[in-house]
Structures are given as structure tokens and as C-alpha cells.
Design goal:
The chain is mostly helical. It has helices spanning about 1-25, 35-50, 60-85, 90-95, 100-110, 120-135, 145-165, 170-195, 205-225, 235-240, 245-255, 260-280, 280-290. Helix 5 crosses helix 7 and helix 6 runs antiparallel to helix 12.
């Protein structure tokens, strides 16, 4: 049951992240990249610390440095992703970011010499193809936004991998509080360095920050970090890849984008990939008994 609890929390995270594509697109109409990140992470840090104030006493030296590492990775990942959206289309950004599903097992192999499971490889490849059908609309030409999105995918893969490692020994929410705090500090350093201290705000801009902070940051990352106490890192990456599906659905509902047959086929392939990862033990058992 703990395993399924973790995977359910991963799915909630994917839904929140999917809606975040719309939120970031709207937010960039009112804020710069660094302003958006600084306000988002600062508010999320304050809310999380207030709601789970008892967790503050669990912030030991170990939690602090591990959370700071995660915060730095998170800052880099979101900076690359948000900057990428300024130079490429949201669909290409979503596709290229989602290749973290095949980077996670590579990281596990490089660092821990964990062997690749053929079902993991099969599921990851199918997921990537599915995300391509779902999200890719333009040619495969490589521009600055595409390169930033690929670097973003690598950063998110490290975030997923090391979060899974750290939550095995540390309190998940204490880690998340430090992670958001570190990302906030780095974002404000960016704001000051670029001379972008906000002096005014529109109502829509404020509401966007509230949504991104509460749902796409606080709720999403709390669910992710708690869920990773139970879920396998490769499965986590596969489930989180469904953010592309939810991103498309929210875009259709809120931005009036047209849902094509190719997008539906992409959704189908992604869910097939997740099913393959989920029933992997059954496949192995059937092969052994054959």
C-alpha cells in the first residue's frame, strides 16, 4: 500500500506540474524569469514553514546541506525551463524536458552501477515516443530554447534521483522547506544581479504567483518528496512524465488549444509505458514460469 501511496502522490505532482505550463506562460506576461521564480519560491517557503512548522526542528546540518543541494538543482532546472520557454515553443519545451525519464536510470547506472532493466528501457523509450507525439509540433531543428530545455531535463533528472536518495534518510517535508528556501535565495540573488526588483504588480500577475506557489510548487513538491520515500526513482520519472498529458489538457481547457489525434495517440503511448513499468514483476514471473 505504501508503494501505491507514493505513486498516487507522484500522479498528483504530475497534475500540478502540468497546470504549471499554463501558469508560467501567463506569468511571463507579467514578470521576468527571476521575478517569477523568486516570488513563487519565497511564498511557497513561507506557507510550507507555517503549515508544517513542527518540521522546522528536524532541520539538522544533514537536512540543511542536502536540502540546499536540492534547492540549487531546482533553481537551475526551473531557470533553464523558464528561459527555454522564451526561445522555443511550449510543446517542444515539454517534450525535451520530459526526456528526464531516460536520464534517471542512466544517472543510477553511472553513480551506483545499477544495471538497466529491459522493461525500464522499453517503458522509457515508449514514453519518449509518446511525449513526442503529444507535444512535438515543429521540426527537430535545434535552437537556444531547445538546448536550454535539454539541459533542464538533465537538471530535473538529478532532482528526481537525489530527492529519492535523500528522503530515504531525512524527513521529506524538512528537506522540502530547505529546498524551497535555497531556491528562493538563489532567485533573489538573480533578481538583484539583474536589477529586476519588482515595484508594481497587476492583479492577474499576483494571482498567477499565488497559484504557482501554492499548487505547482508547495503541493506538487510536498507530494513528490513524500511520495519518493516509497516510489522507485525510474517509476517516479515515468509517472511524472504524464505532466505533458495534463499540460495539454489544461491548455485545451484554458487556452483553447486543439486536441489532435496525434496528441491522443501520444497520451496512449505514455500510459502504456507506465503500465509496462508497473507490471514489470508480473512479466518477469511469466517469463520464469514459461
Amino acid at each position: 500500500m505504501k508503494k501505491y501511496k507514493g505513486e498516487l502522490l507522484m500522479l498528483i505532482t504530475a497534475v500540478m506540474w502540468g497546470s504549471g505550463f499554463v501558469g508560467m506562460a501567463v506569468g511571463l506576461e507579467h514578470w521576468s524569469v527571476m521575478q517569477l521564480m523568486a516570488l513563487r519560491f519565497t511564498l511557497a517557503t513561507i506557507l510550507l514553514a507555517l503549515i508544517f512548522n513542527k518540521k522546522l526542528r528536524l532541520i539538522s546540518k544533514s537536512v540543511f546541506w542536502k536540502g540546499s543541494i536540492l534547492g540549487a538543482i531546482l533553481f537551475v532546472a526551473f531557470t533553464l525551463q523558464t528561459l527555454g520557454l522564451e526561445y522555443t515553443t511550449p510543446s517542444k519545451n515539454a517534450f525535451l524536458t520530459a526526456i528526464n525519464v531516460i536520464i534517471v536510470p542512466i544517472i543510477a547506472y553511472i553513480i551506483y552501477k545499477r544495471r538497466f532493466d529491459r522493461f525500464e528501457i522499453m517503458a522509457a523509450i515508449i514514453a519518449i515516443v509518446g511525449i513526442g507525439f503529444l507535444s512535438l509540433q515543429d521540426s527537430f531543428t535545434m535552437n537556444l530554447g531547445d538546448m536550454l530545455s535539454i539541459l533542464c531535463a538533465i537538471a530535473f533528472a538529478f532532482d528526481i534521483f537525489y530527492t529519492n536518495v535523500f528522503v530515504k534518510k531525512e524527513d521529506a517535508l524538512a528537506l522540502t522547506i530547505v529546498q524551497f528556501f535555497a531556491a528562493s535565495i538563489l532567485s533573489w540573488i538573480g533578481v538583484l544581479a539583474l536589477g529586476e526588483v519588482p515595484t508594481s504588480a497587476s492583479t492577474e500577475g499576483v494571482l498567477t504567483i499565488l497559484y504557482l506557489a501554492v499548487f505547482c510548487t508547495l503541493v506538487a513538491y510536498a507530494c513528490q518528496n513524500i511520495g519518493m520515500q516509497y516510489a522507485d526513482p525510474t517509476k517516479s520519472a515515468l509517472i511524472l512524465s504524464t505532466e505533458s498529458i495534463f499540460g495539454t489538457l489544461f491548455s485545451v481547457l484554458l487556452l483553447s488549444e486543439v486536441l489532435t489525434g496525434r496528441m491522443i495517440f501520444g497520451c496512449f503511448l505514455i500510459f502504456i509505458a507506465i503500465i509496462i513499468a508497473e507490471v514489470k514483476p508480473s512479466f518477469k514471473k511469466s517469463i520464469i514460469n514459461a
